[in-house]
Amino acid sequence: MAFVSSTLRKIAFWNYPRTSWQWDVLCVLILVFIFLTPKSWFANTSYNPNTPQTTVVLGVEVVGAKADNTEIGRRAKQAAKRPNGQVTDIRPQTGADGKLIGYEVDIR
Question: Region 34-44: what's the mean pLDDT?
Answer without folding.
Answer: 83
